[in-house]
Amino acid sequence: MTRFRIPFNKPSFAGDEKRYIADAIERGHISGDGHYTKLCHALLEQALGAHKVLLTTNCTHALEMTGFLLDLQPGDEVIVPSFAFVTTANAYAVRGAKPTFVDVRPDTLNLDEKLVERAITPRTKAIIALHYAGIACEMDALLALGRKHGIEVIEDNAHGLFGRYKQRWLGTLGALGTQSFHETKNFTCGEGGALLVNDARYAERAEIIREKGTNRSRFLRGEVHKYSWVDLGSSYLPTDMLAAFLLAQLEARERIQKRRGEIWRRYARELAGWAKELGATLPVVPEGCDPSWHLFYMLLPRASMREAFLDHLGARGILGVFHYLPLHLSDMGQRYGGRAGDCPVAEDTSSRLVRLPFFNSLTESEQGEVIETVASFHG
Ligand SMILES: *Cc1c(COP(=O)(O)O)cnc(C)c1O
Questions:
Q1: pLDDT, tens only, 130-161
Q2: CB of 155 closer than 6 A to ligand 1?
Q3: What's the structural domain count of the chain?
Protein backbone atom coordinates (compact mmCIF):
# COMPACT_ATOMS: atom_id res chain seq x y z
CA MET A 1 0.00 0.00 0.00
CA THR A 2 2.72 2.47 0.99
CA ARG A 3 4.52 2.03 -2.32
CA PHE A 4 1.73 3.80 -4.16
CA ARG A 5 0.90 7.42 -3.41
CA ILE A 6 -2.08 7.16 -5.73
CA PRO A 7 -3.74 3.77 -5.22
CA PHE A 8 -5.94 2.11 -7.78
CA ASN A 9 -8.94 2.11 -5.45
CA LYS A 10 -9.74 3.61 -2.09
CA PRO A 11 -13.05 3.16 -0.28
CA SER A 12 -14.72 6.54 -0.01
CA PHE A 13 -17.26 7.55 2.60
CA ALA A 14 -20.42 9.46 1.81
CA GLY A 15 -20.77 10.93 5.31
CA ASP A 16 -23.68 9.34 7.16
CA GLU A 17 -22.30 5.78 7.42
CA LYS A 18 -21.25 5.85 11.10
CA ARG A 19 -24.40 7.63 12.25
CA TYR A 20 -26.64 5.12 10.48
CA ILE A 21 -24.68 2.14 11.82
CA ALA A 22 -24.92 3.50 15.38
CA ASP A 23 -28.65 3.93 14.86
CA ALA A 24 -29.00 0.37 13.51
CA ILE A 25 -27.29 -0.93 16.66
CA GLU A 26 -29.51 1.17 18.92
CA ARG A 27 -32.61 -0.09 17.19
CA GLY A 28 -31.69 -3.54 18.47
CA HIS A 29 -32.24 -5.41 15.20
CA ILE A 30 -28.84 -6.18 13.75
CA SER A 31 -29.70 -9.37 11.83
CA GLY A 32 -31.07 -9.22 8.30
CA ASP A 33 -34.16 -7.43 6.97
CA GLY A 34 -34.20 -4.73 9.65
CA HIS A 35 -34.98 -1.03 9.30
CA TYR A 36 -32.03 -0.13 7.06
CA THR A 37 -32.35 -3.17 4.81
CA LYS A 38 -35.96 -2.17 4.15
CA LEU A 39 -34.89 1.39 3.38
CA CYS A 40 -32.27 0.11 0.89
CA HIS A 41 -34.87 -2.13 -0.76
CA ALA A 42 -37.32 0.76 -1.08
CA LEU A 43 -34.69 3.19 -2.34
CA LEU A 44 -33.46 0.81 -5.05
CA GLU A 45 -36.95 -0.29 -6.06
CA GLN A 46 -38.01 3.34 -6.46
CA ALA A 47 -34.84 4.62 -8.09
CA LEU A 48 -34.69 1.76 -10.61
CA GLY A 49 -38.37 0.89 -10.96
CA ALA A 50 -37.46 -2.74 -10.20
CA HIS A 51 -40.29 -5.08 -9.22
CA LYS A 52 -38.44 -6.34 -6.13
CA VAL A 53 -34.96 -5.78 -4.71
CA LEU A 54 -33.39 -8.05 -2.08
CA LEU A 55 -30.08 -7.23 -0.45
CA THR A 56 -27.69 -10.18 -0.34
CA THR A 57 -24.38 -10.93 1.31
CA ASN A 58 -22.60 -10.25 -2.00
CA CYS A 59 -23.06 -10.35 -5.76
CA THR A 60 -21.71 -13.90 -5.99
CA HIS A 61 -24.58 -15.04 -3.78
CA ALA A 62 -27.10 -13.04 -5.80
CA LEU A 63 -25.83 -14.89 -8.90
CA GLU A 64 -26.12 -18.19 -7.04
CA MET A 65 -29.72 -17.29 -6.22
CA THR A 66 -30.43 -16.92 -9.93
CA GLY A 67 -29.13 -20.48 -10.39
CA PHE A 68 -31.61 -21.67 -7.73
CA LEU A 69 -34.43 -19.70 -9.36
CA LEU A 70 -33.74 -21.27 -12.76
CA ASP A 71 -33.57 -24.74 -11.14
CA LEU A 72 -30.26 -25.38 -12.86
CA GLN A 73 -29.37 -29.08 -12.97
CA PRO A 74 -26.10 -30.87 -13.70
CA GLY A 75 -25.57 -30.81 -17.45
CA ASP A 76 -27.49 -27.61 -18.03
CA GLU A 77 -25.58 -24.88 -19.82
CA VAL A 78 -25.20 -21.18 -19.19
CA ILE A 79 -23.71 -18.74 -21.70
CA VAL A 80 -21.05 -16.54 -20.11
CA PRO A 81 -18.64 -14.04 -21.67
CA SER A 82 -15.06 -15.31 -21.51
CA PHE A 83 -13.90 -11.87 -20.41
CA ALA A 84 -15.61 -11.91 -17.01
CA PHE A 85 -15.08 -12.22 -13.30
CA VAL A 86 -14.63 -15.77 -12.01
CA THR A 87 -17.85 -15.64 -10.07
CA THR A 88 -19.91 -14.94 -13.19
CA ALA A 89 -19.23 -18.54 -14.26
CA ASN A 90 -18.53 -20.19 -10.91
CA ALA A 91 -21.95 -19.27 -9.47
CA TYR A 92 -23.50 -21.65 -12.06
CA ALA A 93 -20.72 -24.23 -12.10
CA VAL A 94 -21.32 -24.92 -8.38
CA ARG A 95 -24.76 -26.22 -9.37
CA GLY A 96 -23.21 -28.61 -11.87
CA ALA A 97 -24.09 -26.42 -14.85
CA LYS A 98 -21.56 -26.03 -17.63
CA PRO A 99 -20.43 -22.51 -18.51
CA THR A 100 -20.25 -22.04 -22.28
CA PHE A 101 -17.73 -19.30 -22.93
CA VAL A 102 -18.52 -16.87 -25.72
CA ASP A 103 -16.19 -14.19 -27.05
CA VAL A 104 -16.66 -10.47 -26.48
CA ARG A 105 -17.00 -7.50 -28.81
CA PRO A 106 -13.74 -5.70 -29.55
CA ASP A 107 -15.30 -2.26 -28.92
CA THR A 108 -17.07 -2.71 -25.54
CA LEU A 109 -15.57 -6.04 -24.36
CA ASN A 110 -19.17 -7.15 -23.70
CA LEU A 111 -20.66 -10.48 -24.76
CA ASP A 112 -20.70 -10.47 -28.59
CA GLU A 113 -24.40 -10.80 -29.33
CA LYS A 114 -23.62 -12.05 -32.84
CA LEU A 115 -21.85 -15.13 -31.45
CA VAL A 116 -24.44 -16.10 -28.85
CA GLU A 117 -27.00 -17.94 -30.98
CA ARG A 118 -24.56 -20.54 -32.30
CA ALA A 119 -23.61 -21.36 -28.67
CA ILE A 120 -27.23 -22.14 -27.70
CA THR A 121 -28.10 -25.83 -27.36
CA PRO A 122 -31.24 -27.61 -26.06
CA ARG A 123 -29.59 -27.59 -22.60
CA THR A 124 -28.94 -23.84 -22.50
CA LYS A 125 -30.87 -22.24 -19.65
CA ALA A 126 -29.54 -18.68 -19.48
CA ILE A 127 -27.45 -15.95 -21.06
CA ILE A 128 -25.41 -13.93 -18.58
CA ALA A 129 -24.97 -10.32 -19.68
CA LEU A 130 -22.11 -8.58 -17.88
CA HIS A 131 -22.04 -4.84 -18.60
CA TYR A 132 -18.28 -4.37 -18.55
CA ALA A 133 -17.17 -1.09 -16.97
CA GLY A 134 -20.86 -0.21 -16.67
CA ILE A 135 -21.34 0.21 -20.44
CA ALA A 136 -24.35 -1.79 -21.59
CA CYS A 137 -24.38 -4.99 -23.61
CA GLU A 138 -26.51 -4.93 -26.78
CA MET A 139 -29.55 -5.86 -24.71
CA ASP A 140 -32.21 -5.69 -27.44
CA ALA A 141 -30.41 -8.44 -29.37
CA LEU A 142 -29.76 -10.57 -26.27
CA LEU A 143 -33.35 -10.26 -25.02
CA ALA A 144 -34.67 -11.17 -28.47
CA LEU A 145 -32.49 -14.31 -28.47
CA GLY A 146 -33.75 -15.19 -25.00
CA ARG A 147 -37.39 -14.88 -26.14
CA LYS A 148 -36.75 -16.82 -29.33
CA HIS A 149 -35.15 -19.76 -27.51
CA GLY A 150 -37.16 -19.60 -24.29
CA ILE A 151 -34.15 -18.91 -22.07
CA GLU A 152 -33.61 -16.17 -19.51
CA VAL A 153 -31.23 -13.25 -19.76
CA ILE A 154 -29.59 -12.47 -16.42
CA GLU A 155 -27.62 -9.29 -15.91
CA ASP A 156 -24.43 -9.45 -13.86
CA ASN A 157 -24.71 -5.75 -13.13
CA ALA A 158 -21.87 -5.56 -10.60
CA HIS A 159 -20.36 -2.69 -12.62
CA GLY A 160 -23.48 -1.07 -13.94
CA LEU A 161 -25.67 0.34 -11.15
CA PHE A 162 -27.27 3.58 -12.41
CA GLY A 163 -25.97 3.10 -15.93
CA ARG A 164 -28.60 2.97 -18.68
CA TYR A 165 -29.39 1.29 -21.97
CA LYS A 166 -31.81 3.25 -24.18
CA GLN A 167 -33.01 5.16 -21.11
CA ARG A 168 -33.62 1.99 -19.08
CA TRP A 169 -31.65 1.17 -15.93
CA LEU A 170 -29.09 -1.59 -16.21
CA GLY A 171 -30.00 -4.53 -14.01
CA THR A 172 -33.71 -4.15 -14.76
CA LEU A 173 -33.71 -5.40 -18.36
CA GLY A 174 -33.25 -9.15 -17.85
CA ALA A 175 -35.56 -11.35 -15.80
CA LEU A 176 -33.07 -11.04 -12.95
CA GLY A 177 -30.15 -8.71 -12.25
CA THR A 178 -27.40 -8.76 -9.64
CA GLN A 179 -25.46 -5.97 -7.91
CA SER A 180 -22.25 -5.90 -5.93
CA PHE A 181 -21.46 -3.54 -3.07
CA HIS A 182 -17.91 -4.78 -2.66
CA GLU A 183 -15.34 -2.17 -1.65
CA THR A 184 -14.19 -1.79 -5.27
CA LYS A 185 -17.61 -0.86 -6.68
CA ASN A 186 -19.24 2.59 -7.10
CA PHE A 187 -21.37 2.07 -3.97
CA THR A 188 -20.15 -0.12 -1.16
CA CYS A 189 -20.68 -1.52 2.30
CA GLY A 190 -17.41 -3.50 2.25
CA GLU A 191 -19.02 -6.76 1.16
CA GLY A 192 -22.59 -6.78 -0.09
CA GLY A 193 -24.89 -7.32 -3.00
CA ALA A 194 -28.47 -7.35 -4.23
CA LEU A 195 -30.76 -9.36 -6.43
CA LEU A 196 -33.08 -7.37 -8.69
CA VAL A 197 -36.20 -9.39 -9.49
CA ASN A 198 -37.68 -7.90 -12.64
CA ASP A 199 -39.92 -10.78 -13.62
CA ALA A 200 -42.58 -10.96 -10.90
CA ARG A 201 -42.86 -14.74 -11.34
CA TYR A 202 -39.56 -15.14 -9.50
CA ALA A 203 -40.33 -12.84 -6.56
CA GLU A 204 -41.85 -15.22 -4.02
CA ARG A 205 -39.30 -17.98 -4.56
CA ALA A 206 -36.45 -15.46 -4.38
CA GLU A 207 -37.53 -14.58 -0.84
CA ILE A 208 -37.74 -18.26 0.09
CA ILE A 209 -34.32 -19.12 -1.34
CA ARG A 210 -32.77 -16.17 0.49
CA GLU A 211 -34.36 -17.35 3.77
CA LYS A 212 -32.97 -20.92 3.94
CA GLY A 213 -35.85 -22.38 1.93
CA THR A 214 -38.51 -21.11 4.33
CA ASN A 215 -41.52 -18.86 3.83
CA ARG A 216 -40.42 -16.62 6.69
CA SER A 217 -40.93 -13.44 4.64
CA ARG A 218 -44.59 -14.27 4.10
CA PHE A 219 -44.91 -15.09 7.80
CA LEU A 220 -43.45 -11.70 8.76
CA ARG A 221 -45.98 -9.99 6.46
CA GLY A 222 -48.78 -11.89 8.21
CA GLU A 223 -49.68 -13.86 5.06
CA VAL A 224 -49.19 -17.28 6.71
CA HIS A 225 -49.59 -18.31 10.36
CA LYS A 226 -46.30 -20.13 10.76
CA TYR A 227 -43.23 -20.52 8.67
CA SER A 228 -41.66 -23.76 7.60
CA TRP A 229 -39.34 -25.44 5.13
CA VAL A 230 -41.01 -25.17 1.73
CA ASP A 231 -38.18 -25.27 -0.85
CA LEU A 232 -34.43 -25.45 -1.26
CA GLY A 233 -32.48 -22.36 -0.30
CA SER A 234 -29.58 -20.94 1.61
CA SER A 235 -28.92 -17.90 3.79
CA TYR A 236 -28.15 -14.73 1.92
CA LEU A 237 -29.20 -11.90 4.26
CA PRO A 238 -26.65 -9.23 5.19
CA THR A 239 -26.71 -7.74 8.69
CA ASP A 240 -28.71 -4.53 9.04
CA MET A 241 -25.50 -2.73 10.10
CA LEU A 242 -24.12 -3.19 6.59
CA ALA A 243 -27.40 -2.05 5.10
CA ALA A 244 -27.08 1.10 7.24
CA PHE A 245 -23.63 1.75 5.74
CA LEU A 246 -24.96 1.09 2.26
CA LEU A 247 -27.96 3.38 2.67
CA ALA A 248 -25.65 6.32 3.35
CA GLN A 249 -23.85 5.58 0.07
CA LEU A 250 -27.01 5.07 -1.97
CA GLU A 251 -28.53 8.30 -0.67
CA ALA A 252 -25.47 10.12 -2.01
CA ARG A 253 -25.86 8.51 -5.44
CA GLU A 254 -26.26 11.72 -7.42
CA ARG A 255 -23.15 13.31 -5.92
CA ILE A 256 -21.12 10.09 -6.29
CA GLN A 257 -22.16 9.46 -9.90
CA LYS A 258 -21.60 13.10 -10.86
CA ARG A 259 -18.05 13.00 -9.50
CA ARG A 260 -17.30 9.64 -11.15
CA GLY A 261 -18.62 10.98 -14.46
CA GLU A 262 -16.27 13.96 -14.18
CA ILE A 263 -13.27 11.72 -13.49
CA TRP A 264 -14.13 9.40 -16.40
CA ARG A 265 -14.70 12.20 -18.90
CA ARG A 266 -11.52 14.00 -17.89
CA TYR A 267 -9.45 10.86 -18.48
CA ALA A 268 -11.13 10.40 -21.89
CA ARG A 269 -10.66 14.04 -22.89
CA GLU A 270 -7.11 14.58 -21.70
CA LEU A 271 -5.72 11.22 -22.83
CA ALA A 272 -7.26 11.21 -26.31
CA GLY A 273 -4.28 12.85 -28.03
CA TRP A 274 -1.72 10.64 -26.31
CA ALA A 275 -3.74 7.49 -27.09
CA LYS A 276 -3.96 8.38 -30.75
CA GLU A 277 -0.23 8.94 -31.01
CA LEU A 278 0.63 5.67 -29.25
CA GLY A 279 -2.07 3.63 -30.99
CA ALA A 280 -3.91 2.92 -27.72
CA THR A 281 -7.70 2.78 -27.56
CA LEU A 282 -9.96 4.39 -24.99
CA PRO A 283 -13.37 2.97 -23.99
CA VAL A 284 -16.12 3.04 -26.62
CA VAL A 285 -19.60 4.09 -25.53
CA PRO A 286 -22.18 2.98 -28.13
CA GLU A 287 -25.16 5.15 -29.02
CA GLY A 288 -27.93 4.80 -26.44
CA CYS A 289 -25.63 3.75 -23.58
CA ASP A 290 -25.20 5.94 -20.49
CA PRO A 291 -22.26 4.48 -18.57
CA SER A 292 -22.29 4.00 -14.81
CA TRP A 293 -18.70 5.33 -14.74
CA HIS A 294 -17.46 2.24 -12.96
CA LEU A 295 -13.89 2.08 -14.24
CA PHE A 296 -11.60 3.62 -16.83
CA TYR A 297 -9.66 1.21 -18.99
CA MET A 298 -7.41 1.54 -22.02
CA LEU A 299 -6.13 -0.97 -24.56
CA LEU A 300 -2.44 -0.60 -25.31
CA PRO A 301 -1.38 -1.35 -28.89
CA ARG A 302 0.67 -4.43 -27.88
CA ALA A 303 0.58 -6.87 -24.95
CA SER A 304 4.37 -6.64 -24.69
CA MET A 305 4.02 -2.96 -23.75
CA ARG A 306 1.87 -3.53 -20.68
CA GLU A 307 4.53 -4.38 -18.15
CA ALA A 308 6.61 -1.35 -19.11
CA PHE A 309 3.52 0.85 -18.89
CA LEU A 310 2.54 -0.37 -15.41
CA ASP A 311 6.18 -0.08 -14.27
CA HIS A 312 6.28 3.49 -15.62
CA LEU A 313 3.26 4.37 -13.44
CA GLY A 314 4.54 2.37 -10.47
CA ALA A 315 7.93 4.11 -10.51
CA ARG A 316 6.03 7.36 -10.00
CA GLY A 317 3.89 6.00 -7.15
CA ILE A 318 0.77 5.33 -9.22
CA LEU A 319 -0.94 1.95 -9.21
CA GLY A 320 -2.35 0.89 -12.58
CA VAL A 321 -3.69 -2.65 -12.94
CA PHE A 322 -4.88 -5.08 -15.57
CA HIS A 323 -8.14 -7.03 -15.32
CA TYR A 324 -9.79 -10.38 -16.07
CA LEU A 325 -7.85 -13.27 -17.53
CA PRO A 326 -10.00 -15.07 -20.13
CA LEU A 327 -12.08 -17.62 -18.23
CA HIS A 328 -11.93 -20.27 -20.95
CA LEU A 329 -8.14 -20.45 -20.49
CA SER A 330 -8.23 -20.76 -16.69
CA ASP A 331 -7.65 -24.21 -15.13
CA MET A 332 -11.38 -24.55 -14.54
CA GLY A 333 -12.28 -23.14 -17.95
CA GLN A 334 -10.10 -25.77 -19.61
CA ARG A 335 -11.93 -28.48 -17.67
CA TYR A 336 -15.07 -27.25 -19.43
CA GLY A 337 -13.31 -27.62 -22.76
CA GLY A 338 -11.80 -24.15 -23.15
CA ARG A 339 -8.84 -23.98 -25.56
CA ALA A 340 -6.51 -21.22 -26.73
CA GLY A 341 -8.03 -19.58 -29.80
CA ASP A 342 -11.68 -20.16 -28.76
CA CYS A 343 -12.26 -16.51 -27.89
CA PRO A 344 -9.64 -14.53 -29.81
CA VAL A 345 -10.95 -11.08 -28.89
CA ALA A 346 -10.96 -11.84 -25.16
CA GLU A 347 -7.50 -13.37 -25.43
CA ASP A 348 -6.09 -10.39 -27.29
CA THR A 349 -7.77 -7.50 -25.46
CA SER A 350 -7.31 -8.88 -21.95
CA SER A 351 -3.56 -9.01 -22.55
CA ARG A 352 -3.45 -5.33 -23.58
CA LEU A 353 -5.86 -3.85 -21.04
CA VAL A 354 -4.89 -1.50 -18.23
CA ARG A 355 -7.04 0.38 -15.71
CA LEU A 356 -6.18 3.72 -14.14
CA PRO A 357 -6.81 4.88 -10.53
CA PHE A 358 -10.53 5.56 -10.16
CA PHE A 359 -12.36 6.23 -6.90
CA ASN A 360 -14.85 8.75 -5.60
CA SER A 361 -12.31 10.73 -3.57
CA LEU A 362 -9.60 10.91 -6.27
CA THR A 363 -8.61 14.59 -6.21
CA GLU A 364 -8.20 16.81 -9.25
CA SER A 365 -4.49 17.16 -8.64
CA GLU A 366 -4.03 13.40 -8.18
CA GLN A 367 -5.86 12.78 -11.43
CA GLY A 368 -3.76 15.48 -13.11
CA GLU A 369 -0.65 13.63 -11.99
CA VAL A 370 -1.95 10.31 -13.33
CA ILE A 371 -2.74 11.90 -16.70
CA GLU A 372 0.67 13.59 -16.94
CA THR A 373 2.42 10.35 -16.07
CA VAL A 374 0.43 8.34 -18.61
CA ALA A 375 1.06 10.97 -21.28
CA SER A 376 4.81 10.79 -20.66
CA PHE A 377 4.85 7.10 -21.64
CA HIS A 378 5.92 6.61 -25.23
CA GLY A 379 6.24 2.85 -25.46
C1 LIG B 1 -17.28 -7.63 -8.22
C2 LIG B 1 -17.94 -8.49 -9.21
C3 LIG B 1 -18.70 -9.62 -8.85
C4 LIG B 1 -18.74 -10.22 -7.48
O5 LIG B 1 -19.08 -9.38 -6.50
P6 LIG B 1 -19.02 -9.85 -4.98
O7 LIG B 1 -19.99 -8.89 -4.38
O8 LIG B 1 -17.60 -9.62 -4.54
O9 LIG B 1 -19.45 -11.25 -4.88
C10 LIG B 1 -19.38 -10.32 -9.83
N11 LIG B 1 -19.31 -9.94 -11.11
C12 LIG B 1 -18.59 -8.88 -11.49
C13 LIG B 1 -18.59 -8.50 -12.92
C14 LIG B 1 -17.86 -8.14 -10.57
O15 LIG B 1 -17.14 -7.10 -10.98
A1: 999 999 999 999 999 999 999 999 999 999 99
A2: no
A3: 2
